[in-house]
Amino acid sequence: MSEIKEDYQYHYAELVESELEKDPVEQFSKWYSDAQNSGIALPNAFCLATASSDSRPNARMLLLKGYDSSGFTFYTNSESIKGIELQQNPQAAMVFWWDKMERQVRITGSITILPEHESDEYFRSRPRGSQIGAWVSKQSSVIDSREELDRSYAQLDEKFENLEISRPQYWNGYKLRPGSIEFWQGRNNRLHDRMRYVLDDSMNWVIERLAP
Which of 95, 112, 154, 195 has the largest count of CB atoms under 10 Å? Predict the structure, then answer.
């Protein structure tokens, strides 16, 4: 760890109030477009943080599959650890980190499960291998070996040959409805720009600058 430079100097940009969109989703869309154009391999990768009913935290990387004014969408196995925790405690946080842009976005809010027809539609758009994988993997459960996983995949690959693969009932879409969205722009001397949008009692977005 001592080899990591402590005096790294940020140089990409600044974030000032006059340049912000009034709506945080529109601001996210601008930054997401920048991340896509920067050459980052997976600009839609984010860390999802959840907590169990007894307040034990968990975090893992996922892929964002859509967003609009109503929230941010992802898909997962509802019987996995994250799925169980989202059922027990339907609050979560997302963090996007775009290193080439020296930016991160933090989103917190409540979780709702998508209607089945939306999950069906997205599942049909997935590659066939990923569809079979959703049936094979009992996500987060203990398995004996990699060979067991590969054997199950081969069996289902043969079973589903020339057939349309339906969505497992335990594989669902989720939407995080934001209550706050923070935009972080790296600046020199650790004096980063942090602009946070929060919903007030009238459900209007209020913009605040936070100390770095």
Answer: 195
- Indicate if the alpha-carbon torsion angle 35, 36, 37, 38 is positive or negative: positive
Q: Which residues partner with 207 through β-bridges?
A: 197
CATH classification number, 17-210, choose in 3.30.450.20, 2.30.110.10, 3.40.50.620, 2.60.40.10: 2.30.110.10
- Look at residue 97 and give its three-state secondary structure: strand
Structure tokens at 164: 């349309």
Predicted local confidence at residue 1, as pLDDT: 57
The full set of domain ranges for the chain reads: 17-210
The pLDDT value recorded for residue 6 is: 62
Q: Which residues pair with 104 in a beta bridge?
A: 97, 184
> Angle 189-59-168 (CA atoms, 0-180°, nearest 5)?
145
* Per-residue pLDDT, 11: 73
128-136 vs 146-159: helix crossing angle, rounded to 10: 120
Separation CA 135–CA 75 (nearest Å)? 14
Q: What is the mean pLDDT of each run of 10 residues along the chain (212 residues)?
A: 62 87 98 96 98 95 97 97 96 97 97 98 96 94 93 95 95 98 94 96 95 96
For residue 152, what are its two tokens? 């199950």
Residue range 3-41, pLDDT digits in tens: 666 666 667 788 999 999 999 999 999 999 999 999 999
Tokens for 60? 């893992």
Catalytic residue flag (residue 190): yes
Which three-class secondary structure state does DSSP give residue 171?
A: strand
